[in-house]
Amino acid sequence: MNNFNYHMGIWTKDQTNKGWLTSILELGAWVGTIYSGFLAEIFSRKYAILMNTVVFIIGVVIQATAVTSAGHSSILAGRFITGMGVGSLSMIVPMYNAECAPPEVRGALVGLQQLAITTGIMFSFWIDYGTNYIGGTGDTQVEAAWLVPLCLQLAPALLLGGGILFSKLIIKSSSGWLLMNLPVPFSPRLLEHHGREAEARKTLASLRGLSQDHELIELEYAEIKAQSLFEKRTVAEHFPALADGSASSTIKLQFVAVASLFKSKPMLRRVGLATVTMFFQQWTGINAILYYAPQIFQGLGLGGNTISLLATGVVGIVMWLATFPAVMYVDKIGRKPILVSGAIGMGVCHLIVAGIMASFQHDWPAHVGAGWAAVVMVWIFVIFFGYSWGPCAWIIIAEIWPISQRPYGIALGASSNWMNNFIVGQVTPDMFTGITYGTFILFGILILMGGAFIWFFFPETKGLSLEEMDVLFGSVGVAAADAERMREINREVGLDNAVRHGSIAAGIEKGGLDEKADRMDSE
């Protein structure tokens, strides 16, 4: 926007400075992922979400002061602080969703986060398009053109924070005003892990809409309890000095949990899967498109800021629409085929755009049709991302960890996402200036490599409970003492009998009990 460019001065004219102005939010987000695991474990997932919402709000308020003489300094500082909140929330929210969701819909529920993100992106693009007209699109444009969309970030943050604090909604019905309870519960797995068993069972029953003594609740609670007991007893055996449950021991155990991510082959496999998946998600080039879409579309021959903003708005719509199939089918089709098909589609789109640019970039006015063809390929690329790597990458890093390592494992995966996000945002302006269409070739090759990585190294995780992930990632091959401890705990909590004798058959999909019994026989 012209008025924003005026306020920012050289920070929107120089490509390197523009990269910093854009990517400093991602740098803050990376910092946010570093501390998020500690907040989630010590203060709970619920309150960690609230704390980071406050951080986000503070960052937005600081950005709003850029309308004064502070200019780029306020934008840089505010975006960094806002990024801290965004990065931490990007790790804690999918973890919270994964821990509260039943296995059969866990992927869809975590995928709803991506749908919410794409909804926000879509609205933000069209809000920017509309506010671009405030005061005119030229030199008469006023500060409200960019200040309004900046301040509108406060609306969803206040809604989220208020929902956690108050958990009530007043609505008007035909019979008058009604007060509805919309509780945001603590994670039942976290409650169990911290010894709040009665509350964990009650919360689990409430989330499933069943009574506390229902057979399905008995089974799921037994699985949660067994996994929690296993991890506690393992800690007591290996770190007896930290097993007293005191505050200082809890803090020290956070560092132990981080270190444990790198001490066994099964955990290293998870670390590699989470960090490399997020590396490839960012090097699809999606955020290069989202951050610099107006500049990209102008580079493809679309003249004028207004037309490029309009084309950018279409990006938001198609990505939003493309997210729905992932939410509906990820738990039926599986993560692996969705990710591989998305990678192939995105790679082909990138290479086609590169070919069009290489052929016509020096004479777009004479090849308007080619320019629009490239724009359409960008839109198709966004569709492929929207149903595949957008939601599924976050689903993977949310569901593959055992409960004791989950906050730190997700934080590690999210930190990979945000650091690569920062790098992409930083280098993209210079890449488009220096290697032009080579930028799309690079993104195309990398995402095809990402598809190959998923095909050869990713084990399908659809339909598995969080506790069953250990079997998939190698718990069968751990020390015999650990395997025996798990069997003893299963017997102790009654999980063996529940599965083997079919006492909770009601409501479980056909074959579910047999699959669980087979897994237990293989341990």
UniProtKB/TrEMBL annotation:
Keyword annotations: Membrane, Transmembrane, Transmembrane helix, Transport
Subcellular location: Membrane
GO MF annotations, alphabetized: carbohydrate:proton symporter activity
Coiled coil spans: none
Transmembrane segments: 20-40, 47-70, 76-96, 108-127, 147-171, 271-294, 306-330, 337-360, 372-396, 434-458
Keyword Nucleus (UniProt): no
Protein's name in the database: Major facilitator superfamily (MFS) profile domain-containing protein
UniProt organism field: Friedmanniomyces endolithicus
